[in-house]
């Protein structure tokens, strides 16, 4: 079992997380599906091979610790951590009016929760010969694209969500530099999946498609590429299927 790639995907009971579980399990990886509602995770995992489900609410420290203990006891290492769980709590609220509650909700999950989870799992990642941390970010977090009138995200306005993904990108860079400096064989990268037809933001996948969202397999393509290529030692990058994304 120890030779198998052990991969944890957070927020994996639906959307891109579930698609990542399906595609990476087909590639022979042992997947641990993090789901904040265990029963939803079990239902979603039905029929998929090489999958364990753990209850995992990224914003709940007890849940994060307990999931880490379960995985440590069973596998003793973690090769890939895909920080996929994420949500948007503010829509079109003016930056001059956005509530503190919305801002905090965005940051609690997409930034503070993600960092706490990553810190908790780092000792387990350090047991791997070559580990990867893949942070699912968004082009919505790119300052450069937010200022580019030609960009598909130029008109978006969700300052809490966008800032939480920009902040996540800085965590990617700084953690990558720290691990590299200390010679740990762990890469840390941010991915932009693009606008993808899931239930993200409360729309149905059909509604998202009508607005131009891409199919779900397109959304996970860059992550699958990175998660299956152990020759690629790039770290501190931000990319999508087209190549590098401007920070
Ligand atoms: N879809 C897009 O267009 C798009 C674009 C750019 C980036 N992204 C990013 O891609 C990632 C996946 O999004 P998606 O489109 O697949 O969205 P989705 O269909 O809404 O799925 C989000 C997943 O995150 C889980 N989640 C929410 N809060 C959580 C928490 N506190 N702890 C653990 N899990 C939690 C959800 O679980 P429940 O079922 O329990 O709610 C669900 O499994 C997110 O990080 C998102 O920001 C999406």
From TrEMBL:
Q: Name one GO molecular function term.
A: oxidoreductase activity
Annotated protein name in UniProt: Dehydrogenase
Q: A single GO BP annotation from the record?
A: secondary metabolic process
Which GO cellular component terms, listed alphabetically, does the Swiss-Prot or TrEMBL entry include? cytoplasm
> Sorted alphabetically, which InterPro entries does this protein's record hold?
Fungal_SecMetab_SDRs, NAD(P)-bd_dom_sf, SDR_fam
The record's comment on protein family reads: Belongs to the short-chain dehydrogenases/reductases (SDR) family.
Coiled-coil parts of chain: none
**Organism of origin:** Companilactobacillus kimchiensis
Extract the signal peptide range.
Answer: none
Q: SUPFAM superfamilies from the entry?
A: NAD(P)-binding Rossmann-fold domains
Pfam families, alphabetized: adh_short (PF00106)
């Amino acid at each position: 079992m120890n030779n198998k790639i052990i991969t944890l995907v957070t927020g994996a009971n639906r959307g891109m997380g579930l698609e990542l579980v399906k595609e990476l399990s087909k590639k022979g990886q042992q997947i641990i599906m993090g789901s904040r509602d265990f029963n939803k995770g079990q239902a979603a995992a039905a029929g998929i091979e090489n999958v364990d489900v753990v209850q995992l609410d990224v914003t709940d420290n007890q849940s994060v610790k307990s999931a880490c203990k379960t995985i440590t006891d069973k596998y003793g290492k973690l090769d890939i951590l895909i920080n996929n769980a994420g949500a948007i709590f503010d829509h079109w609220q003016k930056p001059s009016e956005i509530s503190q509650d919305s801002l905090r909700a965005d940051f609690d999950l997409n930034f503070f929760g993600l960092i706490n989870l990553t810190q908790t799992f780092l000792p387990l990642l350090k047991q791997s010969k070559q580990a990867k941390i893949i942070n699912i970010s968004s082009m919505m977090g790119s300052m450069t694209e937010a200022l580019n009138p030609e960009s598909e995200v130029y008109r978006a306005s969700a300052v809490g969500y966008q800032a939480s993904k920009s902040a996540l990108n800085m965590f990617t860079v700084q953690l990558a530099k720290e691990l590299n400096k200390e010679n740990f064989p762990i890469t840390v990268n941010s991915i932009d999946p693009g606008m993808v037809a899931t239930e993200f933001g409360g729309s149905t996948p059909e509604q998202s498609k009508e607005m131009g969202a891409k199919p779900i397999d397109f959304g996970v393509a860059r992550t699958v590429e990175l998660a299956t290529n152990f020759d690629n030692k790039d770290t501190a990058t931000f990319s999508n299927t087209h190549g590098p994304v401007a920070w």
